[in-house]
Amino acid sequence: MQQLDYRPNAIAQSLASNRTNSIGIMVSELDGPFFGLMMAAIEQELRKAGKHVIITTGHSDQTREKEGIDFLISRKCDAIIAHVEAVSDEYLIEINQGKTPVYLISRYVEAIADKCVSLDNKMGGYLATKNLIENNHRDIAYVSGPMFKADAVDRLTGHKRALAEFDIPFNEELFFVGDFKETGGQQALKHFLSTNRSFTAIVCSNDEMASGAMKYAREHSISIPQELSIIGYDNVIFANYLYPRLTTITNPVDKMGSMAARLVLQDCYQLPTLAVEHLFTPSLKVRDSVYPI
């Protein structure tokens, strides 16, 4: 057959098996280290099992997320792995009643918990703020992601829990809703400085906003960490190369991607996989951007 350059007919095979051996991936964006790691881990795990991926984006917009999922279903994907932020839990429950199962990554919906791989973001937010408090910071500013995103809400909940545990009031003047991008961190620090409120540290709910805050601080001659401590979230690859190196919360997005792929291989193809873990626990990665006072 090799001498004849024979290639199996994929369409005929899919008709015979009722499978296309293709998995849809829906992510919010294609740029940035977070989604790059996620997609690479998913694709690698699936490719080892002889499966291929089709990728689309939702841009954290409800209409686009629904259109993207509809597109992947129309392409006869055997399953979909989705990082979605704008569609409701009710929509995700309803879509999972159809023929194409949708697995969620970095999101938890109780009614379809068996299809979710998520991170304990409340614990992550708690650990970040607790680290600053243990370094004697009490006037702590907080930069959140967009509040329609579950990750942002949960990380803020953890932050408030740490403050309450140490009897530190939450200060609305030291709270800013950013965009999970570098510009959000820059805008946040500019806002905090304009309030004339005293603060010695900032919790940024992702590393991209932390890098933006650090950039703004450098441009305005604010020394990090001596004058201002900054902690991030996600531990993306560039966090170790910022100056100073960024203290952050580890978000094992690559492991979560691999785990979501294993769930698909186990559920849809009945392939034996390693043990499946649905909830990941974050950890503190101490570097150089937090200074004790």
Structural account:
With 293 residues, the chain is α/β, with parallel strands linked by helices. Helices cover 40% and strands 16% of the residues. It has nine helices and twelve strands. The strands form three sheets. The chain has a six-stranded parallel β-sheet with strand order 2-1-3-4-5-11, sandwiched between helices. Helix 6 (150-165) links the parallel strand 6 and strand 7 (175-177). Helix 2 (33-48) packs parallel to helix 9 (253-269), helix 5 (121-134) runs parallel beside helix 6 (150-165) and helix 7 (182-194) packs across helix 8. The longest helix has 17 residues, at 253-269. The N and C termini lie far apart (73 Å). Residues 9-16 have low confidence and may be disordered. Pfam families: Peripla_BP_3. InterPro entries: HTH_LacI, LacI/GalR-like_sensor, Peripla_BP_I. It comes from Paraferrimonas haliotis. Keywords: DNA-binding, Transcription, Transcription regulation. This is Transcriptional regulator.
Using brief descriptors, characterize the structure shown:
single chain; 293 residues; alpha/beta; six-stranded parallel β-sheet; four-stranded parallel β-sheet; 9 helices; 12 strands; elongated
Outline the biggest β-sheet: 6 strands, parallel
Rg, rounded, reads 21 Å
Strand content: 15-25%
Which strand order does the major sheet show? Answer: 2-1-3-4-5-11
Mean pLDDT: 94
> How many H/I helices?
9
Helix-strand string: HEHEHEHEEHEHEHEHEEHEE
Number of strands: 12
Structural class: alpha/beta
Pfam family, one: Peripla_BP_3
Domain HTH lacI-type: 1-17
GO molecular function, one term: transcription cis-regulatory region binding
Organism: Paraferrimonas haliotis
